[in-house]
Amino acid sequence: MNSNPQLPLGLALKDSARFESYFPGLNGELVQHLQLAATGNGERLVYVAGPSGTGKTHLLQAACHSASLCGRSATYLPVRELLELAPTVLEDLEQLDLICLDDVAAAAGHADWETGLFDLFNRVRTAGSTLLVAGEQRPDQSGFELPDLVSRLAWGVTYTLKPLTDADVIAALACRARGRGLELPEETAQFMLRRFPRDLPTLFALFDTLDTASLIEQRRLTIPFVKSVLDNKP
Length: 234
Fold this sequence. Notes:
alpha/beta, Rossmann fold, 2 domains, 5 strands
């Protein structure tokens, strides 16, 4: 991945954030659009709305990985983490093929950042680059004070992530288990859903703990084993 030298350190992509490891559920059309956009064959502006824990960050980082594999330059920017910096960090980003802006609504109410984003969108449109943007709400519900910024964000295609059903979450956990060479019995997955929050980031983090414990103890992911590991988790 090509990165802007003006950006601070610590913005590396997660290697596990790939389209192949994202369980789409009812969001298959969105994933297809993002895959096309990442390779330069889709929409030039895609806005992804959805509450925390629905996989927006995963999808944006997956797009960067996909673009890089195609030889395209790309960068991922978590806006909330950059607000303490001047919006000049957005300068020259239009020279990249793909720009992914995460948690963009964090800039709402920051006049300098709203103006900086507005200017970036105009430059990206002129340059013909691809822009993928994510936020918890749709652009007109995100609290931006600059009307022109809202209109720019709405230029492209906007998708709202649909939540996964319980069956989808179980299938996603089972898919993650298979990727680790493990078998996750359905009754164990059901137990995890009853016992813990149902958002995938939380469940995947718990599964990582279980994966490590199962390798150490050479145990299957039965309910008693899962319960013993997670009850002793600090």
